[in-house]
Amino acid sequence: MDLRQLKHFVAVLEHGNMLRAAETIHVTQPALSKSIRNLEDQLGVKLLERSPRGVSPTRYGLQLLDRAKLILNQTLRAEAEIRDLMDGVRGHLNIGFGANFAGFMLPRAILKVLGERPGVTASIVSRPFDELLPMLRQGELDLAVVVFPPEYPEEEFVYEPLIVSRFKCVCRPQHPLVGKRGRIGLAELAGQDWIVFDRPQTTANLFMSAFVNGDVLPPNPVIQTSSVFFLKAALRQGDYLSFVPPGLVYDELESGALVVLDTDLPLIRITAGFVYRANDILPAAAISVVEELRRLRDEIASGDAPGEGQARA
Fold first, then answer.
1. Contact (CB, 8 A) for 91 and 284
2. How many of the other CB atoms lie within 10 Å of CB of 298?
3. Is the pTM of this model over 0.70?
4. pLDDT value, residue 202
5. Is the pLDDT reported for residue 69 higher than 60?
6. What is the full DSSP assignment across 152-185?
7. 181: which DSSP letter?
8. Mean pLDDT in the chain?
């Protein structure tokens, strides 16, 4: 088994068709078919199911696919690191993050590393947790900063917590409930217009359960969104409420564009941190980001960031 065969195998499954894959990687279709057959012969298993509709993986093919992508991506990383050394560049970062409250730490860490390491470049992508894990698994990302879900695969990855965040009810300062004396009860909150951030879906579920557990009929959110940008803009411009980790709207709380209401909503905590492949050798630039994230975590005592506290690995 060689890299060329793995490249051919991945291309066929990505395109779902021998002809399109052959055209993309600039080989003839007979040569591509022969390469796949040789790979199957070497492994002693059938990797692909061929039908008039195209090509799909067998269970053996599925097992090989993630490994093949990881090997190819690691090879590309090694080649890039050698080129960087030859060119005097200090590396490239591939980092993913979920749209969550830990995001406010990640830009600080990355910008500090880029400032201290001239020549380092970065590719940053935002995806839901369930899309970032396959990218980590296949070597497309060095690490990801995410909200930890209730259950997650532990054997393949290392999870290091950064922040434990307490959800807060936020709105703009002009909202009619701002300045109301005493804690605002669930019944009154249920009658307001709400924007619910639905990434991850557990966030929306936590919001609904807060009312159900208080024997109050949950509000029907006026808006559900997976866009942090839209959520912030709508909160600033209209009389809406949202129940979010404060770090999600960190800058807005710091500037006074949004405020926290004192409510009877229950205390809900979630944890965010960074994830990387177990037994992986991180590039030097990624190690610097990890070290800076740890430094920021240790710098944040409870209350230093609005509604957030540090977490320990």
1. yes
2. 10
3. no
4. 66
5. yes
6. ---SSEEEEEEEEEE-EEEE-TTSTTTT-SSPBP
7. S
8. 85
